[in-house]
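Fold sample X.
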Amino acid sequence: MNSEQTHVIYNAECPVCSFEIDHYAAYSKDRELALSFHDLNQSDLAQWGLTEDQAARRLYVVRDGQMLDGIPAFLVLWQQMPRYHWLARVIGLPGVRQIAVLTYDYILAPVIYRWHKRRRAKAGRPVQG
């Protein structure tokens, strides 16, 4: 694992997550950015100190040995991609950041997680804690 690289841990089985992160991965690859993308369903989560359940609940980013999740993780990711610097600056503004964190933590992430759990249960593959 390259410590200078930004590692993104995401749920590729989630249609919302994979749509967004696949776009970032393609953008990153085209520009040879120091970003790597790890599908929680295909990765050894123990290397990140995460369980499947934890990893499925939100986006995680590891940068300079520090693990971030949620909006702080998105900010680090967007800061690494020239096209998205502006988004990191706007979402990082005081007030905007707090609203984004509350929206992600209490609305978006829980809804997407519950959707993920339902899809897994229907497939006979419940999320492992």
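Fold sample Y, listed below.
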Amino acid sequence: MKPESIGRVLGIGLRVAGRMAGQRIMGEGQTGAAPATPNQLPAQPSAGAASHGRAAGQATRGVAKGVSGFLRPFQRVGGKIWLEVTGVFFFLPVLVCGPILWRTRLSYAHGPDHRTFWASAIIVVIFFYLGVTSFWRARKE
């Protein structure tokens, strides 16, 4: 099936489901009239169209609140996991540059590896700070 036709089918189905939900919320059932097909538009907007729209909006807000309430604990856990994973990735440069820092420690002032020492020292300090604070924030949440 082409993506355009899948989207069209889903859109039509969503509109029909929204209409049905609006009717159920308003307490109106099928009144014996022939059901409208999704491609058929009404000749004139009826007086109750605004109330149907409000009812559908209230139903949508209710569903959105319910879904967000269900997903809230997962969002908090997901945030903690995200902080811990980023903390691990922040510690990777520390693990790579730590041995370089140790190897070049004797030439910190004027030795041949002076620049290598300071570059690795800056990288280690920055990424160590970022890793620690990432884990700290994960624990604090």
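Sample Y note: The chain is about 75% helix and 0% strand.
Also: Helices lie at 3-26, 49-103, 114-140.
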